[in-house]
Amino acid sequence: MTIERIKRYVTPGRLSLLIAGLFLTWFIIAFLVYPNLNLLKSVFWANGSFSIEPFQKLLHSKRALKGLLNSFILAVSMVITVNIVGIFLVFVTDYFDIKGSKLLRIGYYTTLVYSGIVLVSGYKFLYGEQGFITKFLLLLFPSFPADWFHGYWAVLFVMTFACTSNHVLFLSNAIRKIDYQTVEAARNMGASPFYILRRVVLPVLQPSLFAITILLFLTGLGATSAPLIVGGTEFQTITPLILAFSKSPTSRDMASVLAIILGVATLILLTFLRKAEKKGNFISVSKVKSEIVKQKITNKWLNTLVHIVAYLLFIIYTVPVLLTVIFSFTDAYSISTSILSWEHFTLSNYKLLFTNADAYQPYLISIVYAAGAAVIVVALSLLVSRILHKYSNLFTTALEYAMLIPWLLPSTLIALGLILTYDSPKWILANQVLTGSMWILMIAYVIVLIPFTLRMLKAAFFSIDASLEDAGRSLGASAFYTFRRVLLPIVLPSTLAVLALNFNSQLADYDLTVFLYHPLFKPLGIAIQNATSGQTSSDTRALGLVYSVMLMVISSVALYLVYGRKSKA
Amino acid sequence: MIEFRDIEIKYNDFIAVKNLNLKIAEGEFFTMLGPSGCGKTTTLRSLVGFVSPTHGSIHVNGKDITQLPVEKRDISMVFQSYALFPTLNVYENIAFGLKVKKMPKEQIEAEVAEIAQKVDLSQAQLRKKVSELSGGQQQRVAIARALVLKPSILVLDEPLSNLDASLRVQLRNELKSLQKKFGITTIYVTHDQEEALTLSDRIAVFNHGAVEQVGTPHEIYSQSATEFVCNFIGDINTLEHSIIEKVNATSGKSFDPAKAAYLRTEKIYTSLPEGNAEAFTTLTARVIDAEYYGLYTKYTFEIGGALLKKVEIEDGRSRCIIGNEIDIYIRPDDILQY
């Protein structure tokens, strides 16, 4: 009788749910909670009792304080410059009637594929001491300092043009969603174009702009590759300092303190953002929406000025991309001298990439890491999304919040937490040491990808008509059969899209990789960064350019697969 | 036969269905009718097995199915949204349940072809994506998918609510003829009284989680058992205090003026019906509005500040002209009071 009751209670479904629950609990504790708590402990309870000594140490370190100040200055200035450029780009492509706006859009959208370490190294390649543009400027002005491109202004310049992706993606979308009848109504009531822009259009964009601004501020605070590559010694910011401090056992506590400060700033700003989001966006109440019609700038002089600035920005955006592609087809002489001539064009750099093991090794390593992390995180998020979709209780609420922890923490803090926690055997990982191993990077990639992946897949699951699952059951199918045959095929397109975006985002990651990579297995981001160093040979720099071009190709393909085909459908 | 015995369904403290006792005969077209949130869909879902009653039991042909899993109940459901699987084509949607039963492929093909023919779906339509079909065709796929399993009971949860008015009428008729063709016990949930009256053998009117009345459409309409049913079904006038007093004075009836009294709109006459004139009370009314619907006209009369509505079949001989004062006649026996 008792066995019968156990059999009835312990069904295969319940058993697999229990196993999934145990696995997820272990994963969350081992990788999302424990390392971060351990980081806090290593700072505040380093010697077994509460102490704020590392903070005092930080306050006495001029270098650290300067770094903090620099990060803050960069974040504030970026918010201003990126918003000015970003809003201008979006108005030029989507609101005002500008000649050649389709071409301009292509130029402005290059940051979607030409970003991160690829962009920073590309700018260094062009504007650096040996750079094409620097040499061009030297030709015009022989007394021009060749090492002009470093420090605060260089970092700000790079970050300004690197960080407009959110504007072109989200703000332009918000503009396209404006109900044109509201613009017509304002005009009908006698409002001038500028008044309409200020009182009708901009207020609708305000929530998007606010969100973008917060994210920009966070990006500025946590900037890694730009200050590291073009910041020079005089403009060090928090993350490069954390990286430098974390390498020495005597200054690791300082690295942890800086990471915690970054984490707290992130938490505060994201809480602020959440609160603002809760107040809600402006929802159009139109019964029949009409599409936005591009506005003509009636003032002739202003129109000319806007056109000139628009095309100037187009040049700033596209020249680095074009020259990276062009120089990737030239030999060492052209790359080192920045002189272009027909006889120096060659395919040998590409040949090297596809034939030389040393050359293609970073590619292979990054592909394995990015693909592995993308698949693992998608599998994990599918499991969690399914649980969240099917059950709603205290455990699922806790599960969801726990899985979103990495969203609240900068990747630097996550990296440090892992390094400091798993540098010695811990029972929770069966006494395996992760620090210094190949696995730590893969795990970190998975961790940072969880929030985005989970949010997307959860949204996909929750958008499914609930009666589909009921229909499957009422037609006699088991819960698993219904999941496999009905639900999974519906979320598959979103799953594949997220898979492609995840793969793309981690393929040339630098900010996290630089903390955790195995010295014998250097991923692409590191290889490209190495290629920008002044001491490297022209062959290495050539290979860096080829890596960048190939990354742009892969990113373009991934984005086309995700967005291009969808928009055609 | 289906029997709900003392069913109660609770969600935390909220009682969705309370003390429900209902019997549905084999082959019957039975409708659960009521406003949103009245418990009709919850009752239906408890029959299918998506909701477990907190108390009571459900029996089909004498067998207690209360604890039986959904997939073992032999009840097919047509959902409000049709719940057609978007990643499967029409054929695969209809064949879904047969594949679950692990039926041989040839037999599945034969069964699908047979049901498709019965519900008027062509071979070409079977190969289409469900999104390529019209609303009416999608509904037929949903019904075919349910019927192909040859269930003992078919349940339909507001299957016409997403359609436009003309298609709704057309599909209502198709649904009725299909039910007659298959002779299957059918339980239909709707909030639309017209659908309920035209389709059903019997109707249960739900309100606040309880059944107010069970009866044939005619009984429900003409002998509404409760104030709620009387108000919910058909067009009705609520009689003002002054009219009730006049009716009482002229007819010798004793309606309670403190309570609401009701009169159906078609029970107001603008000319005295022949014979039995003393059975009517005459009221003088001013015509203040006329809404023309083609087949009929809906008039609004004003009697000493109180408004009455009347529906009159349009025969071109109406004497109701807006602004005119006319005599109208009501029969006290037609007044409903609870």
Automatic annotation (TrEMBL), chain A:
Location in or out of the cell: Cell inner membrane; Cell membrane
Domain ABC transmembrane type-1: 68-273, 363-562
Transmembrane segments: 15-34, 72-96, 108-128, 148-175, 254-273, 304-329, 363-389, 401-422, 434-454, 486-503, 542-563
Pfam families per the UniProt record, alphabetical: BPD_transp_1 (PF00528)
GO CC annotations, alphabetized: plasma membrane
Keyword Cell inner membrane in annotation: yes
Swiss-Prot/TrEMBL GO biological process terms: transmembrane transport
Keywords: Cell inner membrane, Cell membrane, Membrane, Transmembrane, Transmembrane helix, Transport
Keyword Isomerase annotated: no
Membrane topology: Multi-pass membrane protein
Tree of life domain: Bacteria
Main location: membrane
Gene3D superfamilies to which the protein is assigned, alphabetical: MetI-like (1.10.3720.10)
InterPro entries to which the protein is assigned, alphabetical: MetI-like (IPR000515), MetI-like_sf (IPR035906)
Family listed: Belongs to the binding-protein-dependent transport system permease family.
Protein name as catalogued: Iron ABC transporter permease
Species this protein is from: Paenibacillus agri
Automatic annotation (TrEMBL), chain B:
An example Gene Ontology molecular-function term: ABC-type transporter activity
Species: Paenibacillus agri
Residue ranges of domain ABC transporter in the record: 2-233
Keywords attached to this entry: ATP-binding, Nucleotide-binding, Transport
Protein's UniProt keywords contain Transferase: no
Transmembrane feature ranges: none
InterPro entries: AAA+_ATPase (IPR003593), ABC_SmlMolc_Importer (IPR050093), ABC_transporter-like_ATP-bd (IPR003439), ABC_transporter-like_CS (IPR017871), Mo/tungstate-bd_C_term_dom (IPR008995), P-loop_NTPase (IPR027417)
This protein's record includes keyword Transport: yes
Name the record gives this protein: ABC transporter ATP-binding protein
GO cellular component, one term: ATP-binding cassette (ABC) transporter complex
Record SUPFAM superfamilies: MOP-like (SSF50331), P-loop containing nucleoside triphosphate hydrolases (SSF52540)
SMART domains: AAA
